[in-house]
Amino acid sequence: MARTRSPEHPMPPEGSWIKFQLDLRNIKLEAVAQKAHRSTSMVSQVICGVKNSDAVGLALARMLGYATYKDLMEAACLHAKGGAA
Predict the structure, then answer these.
(1) CATH 1.10.260 fits 13-80, yes or no
(2) What's CA 18's distance to the chain center, in Å?
């Protein structure tokens, strides 16, 4: 996935971790987009922290084994702070 943000506004650590988790599981952004009934661009923008979408958040969470987007973000934040998730 190409970063959609400039060097002045890099992908947040949580987004990088989510993208890494998707890559580990060989889950493509297109698959998340299809599950969420949104565009691939929207999925990328949610991961990069540019936009919010409940549908994309829930699709990401479910595809990565979390019950809710909040649970996924808690794991991503824990990792960003140096914890194990």
Answers:
(1) yes
(2) 4
Instruction: State how far the Cα of 48 lies from the Cα of 13, in Å rounded to an integer.
Output: 9
Under a CB-based contact definition with an 8 Å cutoff, are residues 56 and 31 in contact? no
Quickly tell me which residue has 């988790």 as its tokens: 21
What is the chain's pLDDT, residue by residue, as a tens digit (85 residues)?
Answer: 444 444 445 578 999 999 999 999 999 999 999 999 999 999 999 999 999 999 999 999 999 999 999 999 999 999 877 766 5
Q: What angle do CA 7, 11, 12 make, to 5 degrees?
A: 125
Domain boundaries, the chain: 13-80
Spatial separation of the C-alpha atoms in residues 7 and 17, rounded to whole Å? 18
Burial of 28 (0-12, 13-18, 19+ CB in 10 A): middle
Q: Helix, strand, or coil here: 11?
A: coil
